[in-house]
Model the fold of this input.
Amino acid sequence: MTQASTTLIHRYAGVAIVVALISGFGTFTATRFVTASSAQPAPAAAKPLLVQALGDLPGREVRVTLLDRAPGTSSPPHTVTE
Done:
């Protein structure tokens, strides 16, 4: 490596370290402004819109449901079981 490329690599590394420190500090201070949410409301009940058996696959069916949630709420991750 030449002296110029080594200097350039050191400068990029220095900038990357400074940016990482600023980002980490910003993230840390931002979490101090986020308060713990109050009690979550009860989840909305799912309204079945359609349940239809699949003719070519015995024992299988299609289910379409409607779930209304308030903006900003979510549900825990789900898993698919067979």
